[in-house]
Design goal:
alpha/beta, TIM Barrel, eight-stranded parallel beta barrel, 13 helices, 14% strand, binds glyceraldehyde-3-phosphate, binds 1,3-dihydroxyacetonephosphate, binds zinc ion
Length: 310
């Protein structure tokens, strides 16, 4: 199958009522863990690199590591995606570099500025066969006492979303319905604005939506990290059943980074604590890679529903 855009993946996911996982990658072990899980589950997968990931590993390493995965797992549809591209230039660089999908994140700009920037990226990317994700609305958790007017100012407006998609020609849209990045997503109970999501799906029939900030921050991983010297207090993520529900409502791409970080760190902390005399990095990176695999396999199978969809 090799390297593909997300076009076909999203079409099938939309029709099948499931979502494709977009997992953030930063190094070899993370890529290997994700790919082993996708192979085990026979699932399509999106490997996404942020600007920070490209800076950390170096753009050349990132690209070559993904290419290695594509070559070694030829049975899998794999999409190489730029996560949160901030400028036209970084999107262009990734398009020119062989990415099959880029995100232009103009969510911090005004509606018109976001449209202009997204349109520019779409025009460049499409002529090279690359698909584009954009973002409309601001990612933030729903506070218990938030007013409707405040929610409207932050979250994605369905009417604006329709206009945005029409005027930009974008291929998928990240929407704000209460998810946010990191390990501290909600102060009180976890809540997503499913009413808004339903309106978005109704008004954008057949169009793939994207959910960022979709880690669930499992309690067992937080507890394990804390048990072995971590200090991660009051962390809270998006409950898995909410993600499953969203996957059946037109959300075709679900972004997960924090849970990978937690799985690796909790595992490495345990080894440092239990085997203080060990200093071969393979002694902790191998189990950390296995922890990524277990976590990603669980997401694919029990949360996203993309097992067997290659
Ligand atoms: O949404 C952001 C992703 O979690 C990537 O994070 O910019 O620290 O690589 P990063
Ligand atoms: P999490 O921080 O919830 O894993 O979200 C990741 C993300 O949205 C990457 O773009
Ligand atoms: Zn994100």
């Amino acid at each position: 199958m090799a390297l593909v855009t997300s076009k076909e993946m999203f079409k099938k996911a939309y029709q099948g009522g499931y979502a494709v996982g977009a997992f953030n990658i930063n190094n070899m072990e993370i890529i290997q863990g994700i790919i082993e899980a996708a192979q085990q589950e026979k699932s399509p997968v999106i490997l996404q690199a942020s600007a920070g990931a490209r800076k950390y590993a170096g753009p050349f390493y990132i690209k070559k590591l993904i290419e290695a995965a594509v070559e070694l797992a030829p049975e899998l549809p794999i999409c190489m995606h730029l996560d949160h591209g901030e400028t036209f230039e970084i999107c262009k660089e990734c398009v020119d570099d062989g990415f099959t999908s880029v995100m232009i994140d103009g969510s911090k700009f005004s509606f018109e500025e976001n449209i202009a920037l997204t349109k520019k990226v779409v025009e460049y990317a499409h002529q090279k066969g690359v698909v584009v994700e954009a973002e409309l609305g601001k990612l933030a958790g729903i506070e218990d006492n938030i007013k409707v007017s405040e929610k409207d100012a932050i979250f994605t407006d369905p009417d604006q979303a329709v206009e945005f998609v029409e005027r930009t020609g974008v291929d998928s849209l990240a929407v704000a319905i209460g998810t946010s990045h990191g390990a501290y997503k909600f102060k009180g109970d976890a809540k997503l604005d499913f009413e808004r999501l339903q309106k978005l799906t109704d008004q954008l029939k057949g169009f793939p939506l994207v959910l960022h900030g979709s880690s669930s921050v499992p309690g067992y991983l937080v507890d394990k990290a804390n048990q072995f010297g971590g200090k991660i207090d009051n962390a809270k993520g998006v409950p898995e059943e909410m993600l499953r529900k969203a996957a059946g409502m037109g959300v075709c791409k679900i972004n997960i980074d924090t849970d990978i970080r937690l799985a690796m760190t909790a595992t490495i902390r345990q080894i440092f604590s239990e085997k203080p005399s060990h200093f071969d990095p393979r002694d902790y990176l191998k189990p950390a890679r296995e922890a990524v695999k277990q976590m990603v396999a669980h997401k694919i199978k029990n949360v996203l529903g993309s097992s067997g969809k290659i």
